[in-house]
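Q: Structure tokens for this one, please.
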Amino acid sequence: MLLDPTPGPSPEGERGIGVALREAARRLAAISETPRLDAELLMAHALGVERDRLLLDSARFTVPDDFAKFVERRLAHEPIAYIVGYRDFWTIRLAVGPGVLIPRPDSETLIEAAVGYFGAVGPASILDLGTGPGTLLLAALSEWPNASGLGVDASDAALACARVNADALGLPDRAEFRPGDWASGLDRRFDLILCNPPYIADSEALMPDVADFEPAAALFAGADGLGDYRRIIPDLPHILAPNGVAVVEIGHRQRISVTGIAEAAGFSVACRQDLGGRDRALLLTRP
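A: Here is the predicted structure, written as tokens:
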């Protein structure tokens, strides 16, 4: 007779997990806006299971030794994504680590805007400028199985991570990654151009989770936060295919400024808001 190797529910296990989560959440409240979620993600990671399984079946588990170490790392402001080694984005899971910008939920607005523009048919060719761990390109390719694309980044660490993610998602044949300085040197046209450039002013103070851990080159863009838009947008008309669209992320107070840069480059501009109702993405098309 075969025995179930998974231990059965136990009141002791449920109480132990519950107590550990409550205590961790209490401590994490000092440094996190989502302390309970952080505690649950760290516990699931320590156990080697998904968070939903932990929540549905916590009585089957006992608190692992690694949990306390993970909580201490988080208390030192290390981002959850670096501790667990991944971030979920759109419909995919992306590996991330030190030296790589962590994908944000707000950036899903760019994919939503692209889906709204192209519909189910989708673009044939996609360019992701400043691809990081492949965030926007791989999310778009997962949405449109007949598309292929190129991700460009100046960071070798980001490109290495992007290639790992493409392999893990079964997309290496459709996703190419190469080093580059934004659109400089590109000589082909793309139906969809995605870009989440740095847009934070050099003088702006950030939370320690971001400032002390994520790469500054992926965050800051000069005295007014607009330096990279001024470099990127004037090159886009030469590489955007007819009837294509460039979707560019902006800081929520930058709509007017970036729209002016885009209109000066000959684009018509529309704006999309994120789930919080803040300006987040500009859609650039040719009149």
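A few notes: Residues 11-28 form the longest helix (18 residues). The chain has eleven helices and nine strands.
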